[in-house]
Write a structure and sequence with these properties.
Layout: H1 17-25, H2 34-50, H3 55-65, H4 67-80, H5 85-103, H6 109-134, H7 146-160
Helix pairs in contact: 3-5, 5-6, 6-7
């Protein structure tokens, strides 16, 4: 994003026609012309390259990456009336984990410990959701047996664990 004090420099480039057509059709928030789109996309790339993505910005970026899949699932749900809590939770999990990773570059052992904690917590949140879906023989999924089919080893491991007395 540019500010009033930012000077604008002209940029000229020759690009293949397939990239030009792709750019022309690309929907970019806050941009209507190809010049606007390039400014926004280059700004995003610079922030990513500089490591300046905070969690909220990184999450928005990760949602942009998965937007095609989300839109496709919304269309599919509209056409069929079917919905998958499992698939939507997986997409949310991946989006969140990607945002956590992109927005955290550990500079110290304490930072690495924090990142590790965030990711493990998210991993167990996903596990909890999948275990809830495994509580019945028919998960809320496009394939109602998908969770049961893949849960056996995890359930076996979970049964071997003893809860700690302070938990």
């Amino acid at each position: 994003m540019t500010t009033a004090s930012t000077t604008m420099e002209p940029l000229s480039a020759r690009i293949p026609s397939d990239l030009y057509l792709w750019l022309a059709q690309l929907q970019v928030d806050g941009a209507t012309t190809n010049s606007d789109k390039l400014r926004v996309l280059l700004g995003q790339l610079k922030r990513h390259h500089d490591g300046a993505l905070d969690y909220v910005t990184a999450h928005a970026w990760a949602r942009d990456i998965t937007a095609r899949q989300r839109d496709s699932l919304v269309r599919l749900e509209g056409q069929t009336g079917r919905h998958s809590e499992v698939l939507n939770a997986m997409l949310d999990h991946i989006t969140t984990c990607l945002a956590i990773i992109v927005s955290n570059a550990p500079a110290s052992e304490q930072d690495a410990t924090k990142l590790e904690d965030l990711l493990v917590r998210r991993g167990f949140t996903l596990s909890e959701m999948l275990l809830r879906q495994a509580a019945t023989t028919r998960a809320s999924a496009y394939d109602p047996a998908v969770v049961q089919r893949h849960a056996a080893a995890t359930l076996e491991l979970a049964h071997t664990l003893q809860p700690s007395k302070g938990a």
